[in-house]
Amino acid sequence: MALDADWAERWVRRTADAIADAKDELTELDRQIGDGDHGENLDRGFKAVVARLDDAAAEPAPADERTVGDVLKLVATTLMSTVGGAAGPLYGTAYLRAAKVSGRVQIDPPAIVAVLEAALEGVSSRGKATVGEKTMVDAWHAAVDAAEAAANDGGSELDVLRAAAETADKAATATIPMVATKGRASYLGERSAGHEDPGARSTALVLGAALAAALAGPTSADPRSAA
Fold first, then answer.
1. Which value, to the nearest 10 degrees, does the dihedral of the CA atoms of residues 45, 171, 18, 150 take?
2. Could you state, in order of their start, the residue ranges of all structural domains in the chain?
3. pLDDT in the model for residue 225
4. For residue 6, how many C-alpha atoms fall within 13 Å in the half-sphere facing its CB?
5. I need a surface site. Which of 34, 108, 122, 131 has the fewest CB within 10 A?
6. pTM of the prediction?
7. Is 190 helix (H, G, I), strand (E, B) or coil?
8. Does CATH place domain 3-216 in 3.30.70.1060?
């Protein structure tokens, strides 16, 4: 299976749909332990990303020139310029770091792991967070570990993406009983327990969209899909 720039674009578009569908849920999660703007901010940001992808589709690059990194860099710069709060800088940095290690026409299982690792490094460095602090890092870190294990076991691209997505989903749920020690939620102390971290949940949505994009493959609805 080829994971190329078209896959990356499908990933982004499916992420936008998933965020839009979960906007109210993410906003409510953030209202309980944060600023209450996570869903709104991400939805606005990914809508802007899709608009830029639509504009770029009008002048498509040759198939042998456009890379996965090109798509991820567009996501990064758009999110950084349109999303407020913590989400814009965190996700923007994640996509930017991922773009730097995916400047290839196609990526294989080890390269998928490298992309996820780079995104994790971006989130961790930007947010100054580590595992166990009830942030999106908990979901990203678990996903990277699972993806790496799948790749080391000889798994396919789908195996690696599935491991990352399913583990991120479980890791997001696992933040519910945790006490936040980083970010705005940490101000609540023990009261932050019992609530799922919104960043961890949105991370699970992003990685779930990556898997869904790979499973679906190109369709006639995709602006850049092959004829």
1. 100
2. 3-216
3. 44
4. 19
5. 131
6. 0.92
7. helix
8. no
